[in-house]
Amino acid sequence: SAGSQRRVAGKTCQEILSREESASDGFYWLNSNDTEDPYVSFCNMTNGGDISASYDLIFLDRNTTNFVELNTSLPDLSAFTVCFWYRAWARQLVFLSYATGNMTDAIMMFLSETGLFRFLVLNKQTHSHTGTYNDRVWHQMCGKWTDSDGFVHLFVDGELQIRGDTTIHGVIPGTGKLILGQDQDTFGGAFDREQSFVGEMSHLYLWNTDLEDSVIKSLSMHCKEYPHPGYILRWSDFSTGINGNITKRDNSRCVTKQDVLL
Asked: What pTM value is reported for the model?
């Protein structure tokens, strides 16, 4: 059937759906242009093959001008979970930073040169060595925190890598600025080129609750849009606000080993 194998790749998800009316949500072979080899991408057939939420952002080089700024506001947060997918070919990377008027690291997620993951909430840092993740393979990262118990947790590929040993309490104000790819040393600026993200990023979602560990584990199995209900921020919210040398590539190429089609 259309899209089920490399040799019968479809041009688009919508084309596959038009040829196979019974096609369901899942991963399909696509060949959207003649200059690229066929690739596997998730098709949301429930939404008629719409791909507005299926794209990757490619940060092509280290530069303080390369960042994505969220153009919508957030509510005050007394709990959150943020999950996204990335693949990188360097270390010393800032994935995201959320700053407010008096806190430059209200939320910040960072991979150091030595492989140390750092997760900051309300300007307080938790860190741990977690291995090598700049291997050009797609990885999922989730961070969560709640004021009620105060502990931060960081998961990589569904496995708990960091659990804070001290509690962090408070409320993260919703008046801040969320930026992908840079660390805000001042509100909305003062970026450091040597910490700028270089690689690919996809499918970032934010929930105003601390998701169960079992949910985070299940989210790591499939790289796709709309992974779990209840989010207050979705990946399509980042399709605008792109600055600098960043390419937006439609039809996400983010695929896990569970979804590789032969």
From this structure: 0.91
